[in-house]
Write a structure and sequence with these properties.
InterPro entries: DUF6572. This protein is an alpha/beta fold. It is built from seven helices and five strands, in the order E-E-H-H-E-H-E-H-E-H-H-H. The relative contact order is 0.21.
Length: 181
């Protein structure tokens, strides 16, 4: 799961109660090289849209026919002001294509510095403009442990363009969908 891997869906989760399919983009890059970051994110969104519109999503998961599709963007680094503007423009494009959008950022900087906080509630900086759909949480040791349990909660989708009739992963409720705002 990386933004660099534009030819695969990072994860697919299904919420059978609310009848939503979550196609997740996991953004593990910092914003030091914004132009490359913007290009990768745009390409990944385009590939997800192609995957859905081509019918590959329904071929892999026929049980979700009629469910609403939600693009879920999860970033590990807080966005810069220009990144927030860029993401808002991507949200508008995704919504105009008929899909919902959810996004959040889990700030991993304190964990990387060894300053893990026990507070994971949404706490955007007061000085920093935060997009209304952007959820910012401080990461702690429990959050960094999620990759060890994530495969049990939400299985990755097949690669875009891969045969869909064989080896389909069973559907499950993703952890991130349960943390919806």
């Amino acid at each position: 799961m990386s933004l660099h891997d534009v030819d695969s869906i990072d994860y697919i989760g299904v919420n059978i109660l609310f009848r939503h399919v979550y196609v997740g983009i996991f953004d593990d890059l910092d914003w030091d090289d914004e132009s490359t970051h913007f290009a990768l994110l745009t390409k990944k969104i385009d590939r997800y849209t192609q995957y859905i519109r081509s019918g590959q999503l329904l071929a892999a998961y026929p049980e979700v026919r009629g469910y609403g599709i939600v693009f879920e963007y999860v970033a590990t680094w807080p966005m810069t002001a220009s990144a927030r503007r860029f993401w808002k423009s991507r949200e508008q494009i995704i919504r105009s294509a008929g899909y919902e959008v959810r996004s959040r950022t889990v700030d991993v900087r304190p964990v990387l510095r060894g300053e893990a906080s026990r507070d994971t509630a949404a706490q955007p900086d007061a000085d920093e403009e935060t997009a209304e759909s952007l959820y910012v949480a401080k990461a702690d040791a429990e959050v960094t442990a999620m990759p060890r349990i994530a495969p049990l909660l939400s299985l990755p989708a097949p690669a875009i363009g891969a045969p869909t009739g064989l080896g389909r992963a069973p559907m499950s409720l993703p952890l991130l969908a349960s943390m919806r705002r």
